[in-house]
Amino acid sequence: MLIGILIGVAALAAACVLYGIFVERRRYRLVRRGMAILPADGPETLTILHLSDLHFVRDDRRKAAFVASLPVCDVTVVTGDFLAEPEAVETVVTAVRAARGRLASWFVLGSNDYFNPRPLNPMRYFIPRSRRRGRPVRRGRGGELRALLASEGWRDLTNVREQRDLDGLAVEVLGLDDAHISRQDLRLAPRSAPDRFGIAVMHSPDAAPEVAACGYRLAVAGHTHGGQVRLPIVGALVTNSHLPRRLVSGLIRIGDSLLHVSPGLGTSKYAPFRFLCPPEATLLELRRASADGGPASPNDQSGD
Length: 304
What we know:
Blueprint: H1 2-22, E1 29-38, E2 45-51, H2 61-69, E3 75-79, H3 89-96, E4 104-108, H4 111-114, H5 142-151, E5 155-156, E6 160-166, E7 169-176, E8 197-202, H6 208-213, E9 218-221, E10 230-231, E11 235-236, E12 250-254, E13 257-261, E14 280-288, E15 300-303
Parallel strand pairs: 1-14, 2-3, 3-4, 4-5, 7-8, 8-9, 9-13
Antiparallel strand pairs: 1-15, 2-14, 6-7, 10-11, 12-13
């Protein structure tokens, strides 16, 4: 009896692993999220395509085809970790070409763009970062990636704060480098034009509380992969972030601000597995706030 139960559990576990490797990690989907957050004197709508954690390898035709199929939006934002290996720089630059925004295309990099990814024991993620031993790293092709994207019309927002006009919407945009490797420059976070609509772009969501405190109405981040492995009731097992696990993905209200954390489209090539956490591109559909000045409503959601 006991042996039969153990065999059944082992078979179920093996089936879940195979599903996560061969099915779910390639179940790319587009999710639409609407929010009434734009000021009354701006455009009626603004669409933002949020991509993150693409983790491209050299031959990634299925993922590239999905990115090419995404709708053209007003603004496209990629919040880092374009690469799963440095040899994929040219592949990913070509793949995201079709996803550029009508008004603007923004990006920041993540640690996997700066440094060559290496095999990692998954159990390491369960050890607090303060107790992890450092590992030697090799510098990747982040500089080349940045230059090629810029030549294609993408704006590099790495530790940048600037003012833009988006189809009549006066915007102050902040871009922060990867907080996960302590490259963010929070000295740039305080608003210089608080009358403008504030948008913050970052790879890791760890800096989101500071950004929200500075008055940015919308922040976008990635890095967590939505947990990548989620269990019923338990949720995400790990997030690799300082924020609570319940803030691992989706739209999160922080005071008067909204934070969108993308589950991302990829995985490390050394951990090609997702479970109950399908890869996602997100279309953020911003519209004017209600006339009574009520709070933003991040409730609309649909998946394609």
